[in-house]
Amino acid sequence: MTRPVLRAFASTLLLALCASFAFAAEGREPPFVQRLRKEGVRLAHLAGAEGSIEAMAKAGCNVMMLQTWSLSGLKKTTPADSEEIVQESDLQKLKASLDSHAKRCKRTNQLALATFYGLSEVEAAILKQHRYELVVDAEGHQSDLIPCPVSRRYWLGFILPQFLTQAKALHQAGAPGGAVIDLEFYGQEAIFAWEWDICYCDKCWVAFCKKTARDDSVAALPPASRGRWVRQRGMARKYRSLMSSRLTALMGEVARECRAVQSDFVLGFYPYVPNWYCDAIIRGWGTPEMPALAMSETEFPDGYRPWSEPRIKHLRATRLDALYVGGMFQGTCYPEAYAAKLEELVRRADGYWLYYSAMFFMPEAAKKLTPPDKGTEYTLAAPPEHYLEALTMANERLDDDRSLVTSFPRKIELIARLKQAGTVNRASAVSIANAGFEQDAKGWNSAHPMPVTDSRFAHSGRRSIRFDPLDGPGRGLSSVTQEVKLTGSAEYVLRLWVRVSGPAEGQGLGMTVYCDVPGGSMGHYFLFQDVPKGKWTRLTRHVSAPTGCNGGALTIRAACPAATIWVDDLEILPAASVVWETDPVELPAGVNCGKLEWRPAAPNAELTVSVHAADSNEKLQWGQQPGLDLSRLDPLSERRFVFRIVCDGPAPTPPVKKLWLETSKRL
After folding, report:
1. N or C end: fewer C-beta atoms under 10 angstroms in the chain?
2. pLDDT (tens digit per residue) in 527-575
């Protein structure tokens, strides 16, 4: 560090400690961390396209990560012996981009992150002019480019100035956020890459010898002999532990300087690997109140995978303060599977990050529609708007169903307030040709490989239709479709019977209704985790036809990476006309909404429960399963609610035995 930086650091040390641990001292998390824990991390990786932040926020994301290319085009460099490899004056172009990003995220209530490369060709060209410490492997080979993992010049003179530029942008905009570092080293040489072994450079070796009180003869060992000396004496774990402690301390310095400017500055990094290097970064940055974001790439091919669970368990077992954020890459799947995989990552991990969601806003992406097994990382298998619709549906379903862990629970009983309240528009009956597939595929068409009908399994009759895995892991897609008659502004119930065989987790069965009116919904999808394997299960969804709709196409699209699925006995039924609702309920002062629970009066009663603003009658939330999460309802703007129930079929009077709202004290 230069002397001015040291003076600034000394003068602000107490302020930094107070600011960065203000929430810890009070025993609570910053508001944005509370939001991430409740909703799950829903991170969009963007490239600054106009309108992209607003579109992704509307789709339900809560974190926007800007790809900066921060040093691209940088001409000016510091002298080779300068302790600061990059200075603030070098980053004016970057500052303008970060300022704009922070302001847009503030307006849309998003966490603002900026991504910085650990080492690409651009960074390598700048670093080669400076004498920073280079990594040395166990055989004494020195990298030409890749820094020692505990190189102070690299972290304090190169990475820190970029982070501080982001911290100042966030502070000026009043936006929460932080930085993400891409630890995939794209320099021309790939020794170690990001799967770090320990380093045996001169500085690391001398530090080890001092810490373990080794004599001068050991300290004088050449690099080629150091790794063998450590292994022969069983000291590899000790060496690694010392490296880890040094990196943790170094990360703590970087964190304190950033948080002296922006008190709730958060760090994310990818790819996360459960090794000493990544874990030391987490220990230096993460706290219980402000965890780091450990962004994995393990999930890129297929979503949540067998490798995901042990990594999450590792974070929990070692008490590392980090949220595990699985990477989702839309180029490897169709929209039906995309929606299911996103939802699974939020439910089973701590969230998802979308690489590379800037594709949704590239005009050329719509021209490069390619099956996942034949495309590249910048091609899609369907139009971009289909992926955005799938993303929106996944987030809406999470908002409806995700359980919220709250303290100070209090129940508001609603059953006593329930009364019959009129009817809804009743739809006409909908005819589906060959709904049970007894006549093979007659009446159905397909834009993909046509699934076969199967006489081995049937829910009723003699046949069903079978969807088989296609084209390798994560890439199968087949469909059937037919025209149906729907009525605008009417309520329907979609029903079908499904049987699943084979590995099912993380895969999606899409049941989609396309309406031939502008703005028609992509439809409703189902998840395999809803379906017990090896037996027929009925799946149901409530559908509202758009205003002005006079027809549509009923489509079953299945993305089957590994499982085989059978579908039988489809129905589109008019929703029942009876509606029940409560009197207006006023939320008590000082509490937040939690979960809405109910107990049906009949075991098989199919109910849709919705929440409306009592004054405007605006529908605020709805769902079909108990445990409906209402935490996103803002009690400061909406204090009075009406709870409404629609019965999708015969049900006792009233349709629920018990209806109650769980609440928690407002922090």
Report:
1. C
2. 655 567 788 888 877 677 777 777 777 888 776 666 788 999 998 877 6
CA distance 233 to 78: 43
Residue with tokens 């890129």: 300
Q: What pLDDT, in 10s, does the model give residues 48-65?
A: 777 899 999 999 999 999
* CA dihedral angle for residue 147, residue 153, residue 158, residue 159, rounded to 10 degrees: 80
Phi and psi, residue 67, nearest 5°? -80, 115
Structure tokens at 512: 């989609």
What lies within 8 Å, CB to CB, of 502 at 6+ separation is 469, 533, 562, 563, 564
Give the torsion sign (CA, 58, 59, 61, 65): negative
- How far are the Cα atoms of 7, 42, 166, 323, 355 from residue 175, in angstroms, in the given order? 27, 17, 11, 20, 23
Confidence bin at 500 (pLDDT 50/70/90): confident
77-99 pLDDT, tens digit each: 788 878 889 987 888 889 999 99
How far is the CA of 322 from the CAs of 247, 288, 511, in angstroms?
17, 8, 36
What is the layout of strands, in order, in the sheet containing 628-629? 410-413, 656-665, 591-600, 628-629
Min mean pLDDT across 111-125, 303-317, 464-478 is at 464-478
User: What DSSP string describes 318-369?
Assistant: TT--EEEEEEE-GGGS-HHHHHHHHHHHHHHSSEEEETTGGGGG-GGGGG-B
Residue 220 buriedness (CB in 10 A; 0-12 / 13-18 / 19+): exposed
DSSP count for the chain of H helices, then E strands: 16, 29
Count of CB atoms situated within 10 Å of the CB of 487: 17
- The sheet carrying 464-467 orders its strands as 452-454, 464-467, 564-574, 491-501, 537-544
Residue type for 396, please?
E
Cα separation, 310 vs 308, whole angstroms: 6
Residues in the chain, overall count: 667
pLDDT in tens, 515-530: 555 555 555 566 655 5
d(C-alpha 487, C-alpha 97), whole Å = 48
Q: Which pair of tokens denotes residue 523? A: 């439809």
Which position has the token pair 């995309």? Answer: 338
Cα–Cα distance measured from residue 142 to residue 128, given in angstroms and rounded to the nearest whole number: 14
Cis peptide before 371 (omega within 30 of 0): no
Cα gap 61→353, rounded to integer Å: 10
* CA-based nearest residue to 65, from 35, 102, 90, 34: 102
Predicted local confidence at residue 230, as pLDDT: 94
Q: Are 224 and 137 in contact (CB under 8 A)?
A: no
Cα angle vertex 136, ends 131, 137, to 5°? 165
Provide the mean pLDDT of the chain. Answer: 81
Token pair 């979308």 in the structure block, residue: 354
Q: What are phi and psi of 341, to 5 degrees?
A: -70, -40
pLDDT in tens, 152-164: 999 999 999 999 9
DSSP state of 445: B
What amino acid is encoded at 414 in this protein? L
Q: Which residues contact 206 (CB under 8 A, 6 or more apart)?
A: 219
